[in-house]
Amino acid sequence: MGPPLSTRSRVRSLAAALGRDIRTADLAPEESRAVWRGLGWPDGAIDVTLYALLEYGERLEELRAWTLAQRPSVPEIIGRPLRSYDEWARENAAFFR
Prior knowledge:
97 residues
């Protein structure tokens, strides 16, 4: 596990691995809530998800610093360097086709 990445960054990596554009749309919280309700999500799960997305976005740099400061680090535990998200996306692109 590498440092936290933004959703936009992960989408760009997947698009590059697939060799095509991936369109995205920004939704207001209430638009997201309506979509998830339509998919059968309970209100509590929607509330937690919206809260987590807000916190994650507002505190991304803090989360990156915290992740990198953890010891033992993931590379120390697994005994090898981390793969980048781009590498992971290329290795797993078939799952997204």
